[in-house]
Amino acid sequence: MRIGVFVCHCGSNIAGTVDVERVAREALKLPGVVFSDTNKYTCSAPGQESVCSAIKENALDRVVIASCSPRMHEATFRKMIAEKTDLNPYMLEIANIREQCSWVHKDREQGTRKACDLVAMAVAKVSCDRELFTTNLPVERRALVIGGGIAGIQAALDIADAGFPVTLVERESSIGGKMVMLDKTFPTMDCSACICTPKMSEAAENPNIEIKSLTEVESVSGYIGSFDVTLREKAKYVDYDVCTGCGLCETKCPTKKIPSEFNQGLSTRTAIYKPFPQAVPSKPTIDAEHCKKLQSGKCGVCEKVCPTGAIRYDDVDRVTTQRYGAIVVASGYELIDWTGLYGEYGAGRYPDVITGLQFERIVNASGPTEGHILRPSDRTEPKTTVIVKCVGSRDPNKGVSYCSRACCMYAAKHAHQYLDKVPDGTCYVFYMDVRCAGKGYDEFYMRTLQDGAIYVRGRVSKIYPEGDGLVCMGEDTLSGEIVRVKADMVVLETAMVPSRGSDVLASKLNVQRGPEGFFTEAHPKLRPVETNTAGVYLAGVAQGPKDIPDTVAQAGAVASKVIGLFARGQIESNPMLSKVDVSRCSGCRACVDVCPYGALGLVQANLRENSRKVTRTVCQVNEGLCQGCGACSVACRSGALDLLGFSDEGIMQEVEMLCQ
What we know:
Elements: E1 3-8, H1 20-27, E2 33-39, H2 45-57, E3 62-67, H3 70-84, E4 92-96, H4 108-126, E5 136-138, E6 143-146, H5 150-161, E7 166-169, E8 184-185, E9 190-191, H6 192-205, E10 209-212, E11 215-223, E12 226-233, H7 248-252, E13 258-259, E14 268-269, E15 272-273, E16 285-286, H8 292-296, H9 301-305, E17 318-324, E18 326-329, E19 333-335, E20 353-355, H10 356-363, E21 384-391, H11 407-421, E22 426-431, H12 441-451, E23 454-457, E24 460-466, E25 469-476, E26 481-487, E27 489-494, E28 496-498, H13 502-509, E29 536-538, H14 548-568, E30 570-572, E31 578-580, H15 590-594, E32 600-609, E33 612-621, H16 631-635, E34 641-643, H17 648-659
Parallel strand pairs: 1-2, 1-3, 3-4, 6-7, 6-18, 7-10, 18-29, 20-27, 21-22, 21-27, 22-23
Antiparallel strand pairs: 5-30, 8-9, 11-12, 12-17, 13-14, 15-16, 19-28, 24-25, 25-26, 31-34, 32-33
Helix pairs in contact: 1-4, 4-17, 5-6, 5-14, 10-11, 11-12
């Protein structure tokens, strides 16, 4: 064996704590090592060229690079070896001397000794590595987008415009998500509906996009390029092929007092309804829970007045299965249910304590008050309004520990809108910090201050009724004084939390979630829109709180990933997969039960034992599904399973080297 070791300074990231020159010298003493060198930035173009030159000049057949985490640049170095040398790219090992060494040690001597140990272990392992080869897998050039908010719509449009078919799935009766509920968007104060509804119409008219409303993902199987997805489309009780969307049924429906979800409970709707006039699909659906005909067999007015006979009281859920090459998760977010957490704010008992999204509907020209700012209790104009930021955000005791990121800006927007429509009004904004990091955001905040908004640094400790108004008690932490504000209306800027059912969806997709519940990206810097399940991508707030510009940008990034995948038409498989020694397999199912990707199954195999043919139940690996996690090889009682690239022999060699 001719092993080469390359130790990276990583600027001062590694060299600040580790004597990299000493590590390189010590590496030359290891068995099989014939070359060792250092480089300031091995991942840079000059650094990669020096590694490739050393491989060729020294006829190296194995390589160890001591640098950062393999999650960061292992793929980079493998690609470099494959494209610029004759060496098999899987004859490479990464010794992580940054995250596992220099970043966790202060003492230079201790860090250097540990780096030497890590390099020695990598050398021991690479000596056991064998050449691995990829295979090509076909790709179904069809995408599934889960979630019909602005992220899902943008991703679907971009993919469809590239010529690939897309199924856009939305569990509500219309696409549009939260953005279509907003009045204006900061910092330019463009009409939200004027931006979002044309996108909705464009998606509906695009021949490559199939919109499935009131639809949820039932199950997912398969792998990148070949996902078999079962969708459940809930009964709408209206035949959309016949319905013209004239709206006559809505005007005649006698059940009219159902709180409108679109208007956040500030108005009512009928049992057969469209959530809002610009809804897509622009056709009504029947709310079975409140429909008198479906609940008691009485009424049937909508069927009688429908001019096209589109009403179908016998409608049932439709379950279909389709194959997709890629899946985009754009499931959006919910606002935290503050009523169960903040009893000191009234816990929902006071009608004039509303959320920011309810304020959006009030200030919107198409909202329940036609854009006039009127408080819900008596429909009078509030002369003093209090805005409370970070309700549920940055509050690990009651809400969530993270910052919801957009609250500072939409609090400033609400203050601006209120003062614009109520010129003689007074607006107080209680805040913890003001975070306005986007383009034009700080200028917008300063403009709100110039409008006359009074910012008070401190949390509101209690809200209680007094007379026909509300009293907000708090503290100004800058002056140290207690603040008591008599308000007509209070707006709570509540935290963004993962959409309901995210945990179930994550389980179906085999996608990880972070401690806060949002879907986790494969790498926060290098793979921000991918997940650890190949072929599943993240867009918008499904990945974490963000504003509309960042959401749209991320949707475009996802679309480019999907288009790139489809354009190739095939993908290379991961060769670092589980391998079964069927002669040792007992068919116990332990590996099948532990596999998180469903990549293992039991089959009947014809084997030869002691010169005779026998049929036994053994394990079989689906190479398309296997992600090389190694859980099965650990669980296998008979030792029949091994993970290519991480063989038992290689791991034991590492341990033995460490113990020397």
